[in-house]
Each structure stands twice: as structure tokens, then as C-alpha cells.
Specification:
This protein is 34% helix and 31% strand. It is α+β, with helices and mostly antiparallel strands. The protein has two domains: 238 residues, Urate Oxidase, CATH 3.10.270; 36 residues. The longest helix is centred in the middle third of the chain and has 18 residues.
């Protein structure tokens, strides 16, 4: 019965003879095995496509790609090496269409438990959005790993202005006193040291690295830890007062413009991963718009 059903993609030609760069599917639900005992199985979505260089071909065979993706999810752990095999299988499955390139994109949230800064035994969960892009063309395979990190940023200019305001208020309040008793200073600090406070905001960085296609694992935790260490002020989960105070101290010790954050990240990532691309956004509390910055290792080009 199946042999009598029409196969338009195979037996009809395109009315407009033009080659297509990419044809495929987007947003396919798929379970993934991360290949690390520290990471639970992942619920992901996948985008996948092949090129269609034959201008007369009506279309690709999407069911072939879908089945290959299902086999990939069942048989192996997620790694650059396994993605390279999948891409080659996708191209081979469309040899009758003349396909010479394939690409796949994966998105998922990586859940990690993070401890409080000070309180023993206190922890909470954070979700890190992850994006993996892989492409095979000719004899080359490219694999990129990107993670988004949330952190707090306190404006250096606002901090300086706040300190100046506190200094001026102190000078005015004690303008008639040549020597101020230590107790009076401490009381003044407790009452008025926060009369002006610097503005800070939740911020986000996307860090992207390129991996060897022969690698057996994705350095997910290594990339996250490197970025959070460089920024020094990642957002917290469960906190008590001691943890909140410790977070305030970290912000005070790590004042940063959006430019500072981008430079910190690029410098740290290049020490561990050689090449990277960084994009940061500070969701301003002073302005109704964001401050943004980006940078990349010289020679870096986005995969296409």
C-alpha cells in the first residue's frame, strides 16, 4: 500500500529552479544525555537543516532528518563528536538531493544547584539557558557552545557620586567640630551612610566558545564557572541576611560598567578556551533602556 502513495518531493520538480541555502525543521522536542554525572538528562528543542543545491529538486525529505535526530537522542551522549556524526548522517541521507552541508541547533536550560555565599547548607536552583550550534560543510565541522549568565552590576559613576554625597553630608553635619569622637562617627554612619546609594541592576551576559569537533564532551560547567568567577557577582538563589550582606560586599568590590564586564569576560575566557565571543547587557535602573557591549577574539566569525 505504501508504495502506491505519491512522493511529491521525489517525483516532482520545482516550478522555480533555484537552489536553497537551508531547508529543515525548527523547535523539535528532544531528550538529551549531557554525558556528565553532574548533569541530569535535558529536555531540549532542536533545529536542523540541510542545504538544497539542486535547483530542480522539489524539496528535502524531512522525515529522514527527524528519524536521524531520534536515533541520535537514543543512542549517544551529547558531545561535539556525536554532533559531527549526526551532521554527516544528515548529509548522506540527502545525497539524492545533492546536499553538501548540514546544521543543527540545540537549546535547553541547564539546572544547577548553587550554594549561598555564607550560610552553611543553604542552596537553591538556577537555570542557565544554553545554545549549541553545529555545522558540517565539505570536510570541516564547526561546533559552538553559548551560555547566558545573569549577574548584578553596580555603576562606578553612581558609586562615586554616592560617596561624594555622603562625604559632603558628613562634612556639613560636623562643620563646627574640629575633632569627631569615634562613637559619633559610628552613629552617623549607621544613621546616614546610605543617604545616597549607587544604582545597580540585574544584567546578562552571553558567552560563546568554539569547540573541537573531536571533543568527547561539552564543557558546560567549566564555561559557566569561568564566566561567573570573572564577573564575581552572579545572581543568588536562597539567601539569609548574612548572604545578602556578602552579596552587597561583592558588588561594592566589583563596580563595573558594561564595558568592564565585557572585558573581564573576554580576558577570562581566552585564558581557558582560547577564542570566544562575548555580549553583555545591563538592564539599567537609572534609564529606561539597556547598556550593551560586545567583543570577540580577533579572527572570530559567527558560524553561518
Amino acid at each position: 500500500m505504501a508504495s502506491t502513495l505519491p512522493d511529491v518531493a521525489r517525483h516532482e520538480s520545482s516550478a522555480i529552479p533555484l537552489a536553497l541555502n537551508w531547508v529543515g525543521m525548527r523547535g523539535i522536542a528532544i531528550p538529551l544525555m549531557p554525558g556528565s554525572p553532574e548533569i541530569a538528562p535535558l529536555a531540549a528543542t532542536a533545529d536542523l537543516a540541510v542545504d538544497l543545491p539542486d535547483p530542480h529538486a522539489k524539496g528535502i525529505h524531512m522525515s529522514r532528518l527527524y528519524r536521524l535526530l531520534g536515533t541520535f537522542a537514543q543512542q549517544g551522549e551529547l558531545s561535539p563528536r556525536s554532533l559531527q556524526r549526526l551532521l554527516r548522517d544528515m548529509i548522506e541521507s540527502h545525497a539524492d538531493c545533492g546536499s553538501r552541508a548540514a546544521r543543527i541547533g540545540l537549546e535547553f536550560g541547564l539546572l544547577q544547584q548553587r550554594p549561598a555565599l555564607r550560610t552553611p547548607g543553604l542552596a537553591g536552583w538556577k537555570s542557565y539557558p544554553v545554545n549549541v550550534q553545529a555545522m558540517h560543510r565539505g570536510h570541516a565541522t564547526w561546533v559552538e557552545l553559548a551560555v547566558r549568565i545573569q549577574y548584578s552590576s553596580t555603576c562606578p559613576c553612581s558609586a562615586a557620586l554616592s560617596r561624594q554625597a555622603v562625604r559632603d553630608a558628613f562634612a556639613e553635619d560636623f562643620s563646627d567640630t574640629a575633632l569627631v569622637a569615634r562613637g559619633d562617627v559610628l552613629d552617623w554612619i549607621s544613621a546616614r551612610a546610605s543617604l545616597a546609594t549607587p544604582h545597580s541592576q540585574r544584567s546578562e551576559a552571553e558567552v560563546r566558545i568554539r569547540l573541537s569537533a573531536d571533543a568527547d564532551a561539552l564543557p558546560l560547567l567549566a564555561l559557566i564557572n569561568c564566566a561567573e568567577t570573572a564577573l564575581a557577582t552572579p545572581v543568588q538563589t536562597a539567601v539569609k541576611r548574612a548572604d545578602e550582606q556578602a552579596f552587597a560586599l561583592l558588588n561594592g568590590a566589583n563596580l563595573m560598567y558594561v564595558e568592564d564586564a565585557a572585558r573581564r569576560l573576554r580576558w577570562a575566557l581566552e585564558q581557558h578556551f582560547s577564542a570566544c565571543s562575548v555580549s553583555v547587557s545591563h538592564h539599567e535602573s537609572l534609564h529606561p533602556h539597556d547598556a550593551v557591549a560586545s567583543c570577540a577574539t580577533p579572527g572570530w566569525e559567527r558560524m553561518d
